[in-house]
Amino acid sequence: MNNDLLKIYETFSSIQGESTYAGIPCFFIRLAQCNLRCSYCDTVRAQGLEHYREVHADELAIQAAASGLKLVEITGGEPMLQRDGVCTLAERLLSTKSQKVLIETNGSCDLSYLPDEVIRIIDWKTPSSGEANKMYEPNFRQLRPVDEVKFVLSDEKDYRFALEKIRTFHLDLQTSNILFSPVYGALQGADLAAWMVRDKVPARLNLQIHKYIWDPNKEGV
Fold this sequence. Notes:
Blueprint: E1 5-15, E2 25-31, E3 53-56, H1 57-66, E4 71-75, H2 83-95, E5 100-105, E6 119-123, H3 138-141, E7 148-153, H4 156-169, H5 171-174, E8 178-182, H6 189-199, E9 204-205, H7 210-213
Parallel strand pairs: 2-4, 4-5, 5-6, 6-7, 7-8, 8-9
Antiparallel strand pairs: 1-2, 1-3
Helix pairs in contact: 1-2
């Protein structure tokens, strides 16, 4: 198997829509295939292997450099299903020391293989996703201050679940980057904000700003 080849769904330049990097121009590398089927998934076409092309890690690094952007995100799908290739890609991207590299991952795969310089943005799947029992818990016991944990919330049950995980895993003692993201069209940001203020939650309200800038169903933005 060629570890330099990756199955890519799409690459594009846009505005980072989520995380503490929201609003910053970013080059995205979206890999195909995911092992989860979350109820609120907004990249359904990237879940399988019906739509992909194989691209060498070196070519992807060239595309990222050509974008002229200082922030690169590897996402999916679930990037860690192509673990060896993703680690190779991350090393290529980091080798120039001119770009910051993020990875957004669904929390179900071991992230310890990644180069230390890669910033992890890890979803902790909530009950409404249907995949809350698929998390690889060591990921959440080995966080670094630069890493981020995102809870995507559909309702108050999800919110209470997230509070319990913060307490149980002492997430706020490991990183200040805990994100509460309301599912677009399901949970009102105003309601979530009110709960967070009421409960003095050690987290950040994280709206998916790309869904407010563009059509919420549009890909490649």
